[in-house]
Design brief:
This protein is mainly alpha-helical. The protein is built from 7 helices and 6 strands; from the N terminus they run αββααααββαββα. β3 and β4 form a beta hairpin.
Length: 193
């Protein structure tokens, strides 16, 4: 099991969360094609380590983050994993990256003939491009829907998530992670006084 967080509430937000500890400068979890293959597998998405496309995944991740969380400061976005990569800097560039990921995807299953000449559905290509397309389509739904998007309130976290709480007032990426740490610090401060 990788160093992944699944608190986002949507696959595209979970992809954004592959940069961890953003408020502390950022930590890349998709360092190698093998890391990407493991993340895709755990996310239930297609992908082949030989076809990893780390650069394309990172571009899509940063595009989604820029579009979904436009009010997040540059300091709270975390550092870019590889400064040689051309990452989207404007919302127009980010939209182009998302649309390119969708357009590059293999089509849904096509019709083919089996050995006996009967029509059958040909399986769609299980490539990283297909995974990126699914993530990009999910991002379109995220960006055009009415999901309430938040960033964890912990001063050292930065994990993004969809707030589906009944009162729509969720503060923490997870109560087990940041919420409990905050409660423990507050309790310690009160008892120490």
């Amino acid at each position: 099991m990788g160093d992944w967080l699944w608190y986002g509430g949507r696959p595209s937000v979970d992809l954004v969360n592959t940069i961890r500890d953003r408020k502390l400068g950022g930590r890349e979890t998709l360092r190698t094609p093998a890391d990407l293959a493991a993340w895709l597998r755990e996310a239930g998405l297609p992908g082949d380590p030989a076809d990893a496309g780390l650069r394309a995944v990172r571009r899509l991740r940063e595009a989604i983050d820029l579009l979904a969380f436009p009010d997040v400061s540059a300091a709270d976005r975390g550092s870019v994993p590889d400064s040689r990569e051309t990452l989207p800097r404007t919302t127009r560039e980010a939209v182009d990256v998302v649309n390119a990921a969708i357009a590059a995807a293999p089509p849904v299953p096509t019709l083919a003939l089996d050995d006996a000449g009967r029509p059958v559905a040909a399986p769609r290509e299980e490539s990283t491009a297909a995974a990126l397309a699914r993530l990009a389509v999910d991002a379109v739904g995220l960006l055009t829907g009415d999901d309430l998007l938040r960033v964890c309130a912990a001063p050292d976290c930065g994990v993004r998530f969809v707030d589906r709480s009944p009162a729509r007032n969720r503060q923490w990426c997870s109560m087990r992670r940041c919420g409990n740490r905050h409660k423990a610090r507050r309790h310690y401060d009160r008892t120490r006084s």
